[in-house]
Amino acid sequence: MSELSIEPLRADMMLAMRRLARSVAVISCCDGERRYSMSATAVDSLSTEPPSLLICINQSSSMYPPLAAGADFCVNLLAASQQDIAIDCSGRLKGEARFTSGDWQRSEQGVPYLDGAQANLLCTQDGRFDYGTHTVFIGKLREVKLSGDIEPLLYLDGAYTTATNAATSA
To answer: In this model, does residue 144 exceed pLDDT 80?
Structure first.
């Protein structure tokens, strides 16, 4: 396929993916004392044997270098009330300033996690592969923390919403 014929397909894919409601996560990791976080929807379960997840990270993101070096990570699934944290971690704030929103703690292994998130999935990095502009990182679950009722923050059609709002607007 030539580059010219790929562009309409790329545009159609982006329009189609706007219709896929996804839970909003903030992925966090650290490199020594320096912490990193970013909002993401490219997160999914991989296997229950062993319990594992995958995250897809753009190779141009600030979080990519520590992950590429093998850093362990946490997938923090956000609650509907945590939209400001999602916005902060998607670009409104940079670097360490992203950790001024919410109650951030450190696991025994030193990985930052958001206390009060719907769930914290603490992972040991267990593999990766590059594909196009992104790298898929595999995380073997080490610990899961659950908090509150199931009331996730969702991302749909380019905007944050909740399950209740998404159901009433359908």
So the answer is: yes
Report pLDDT for 7.
86
Beta bridge partners of 105: 113
| Helices and strands, counts by H and E, the chain | 4, 12
Q: Is residue 7 part of a domain?
A: no
Evaluate if pTM is beyond 0.90. Answer: yes
Residue 8 lies in a domain: no
Please give the Cα distance from 57 to 104 (Å, whole number).
Answer: 21
Question: H/E element holding 125?
Answer: strand 119-131
Assigned domain for 9 exists: no
Looking at the structure of the chain, the number of domains it has is: 1
What is the domain range of residue 42? 22-169
* Residue 56 contacts residue 38 (beta carbons within 8 Å): no
CB 83 within 8 A of CB 162: no
Residue 113 forms part of a structural domain: yes
Q: What CATH number is given to the structural domain containing 102?
A: 2.30.110.10
CA 125 to chain centre: 15
**Inter-residue contact 43 to 75 (CB < 8 Å):** yes
pLDDT of residue 166: 67
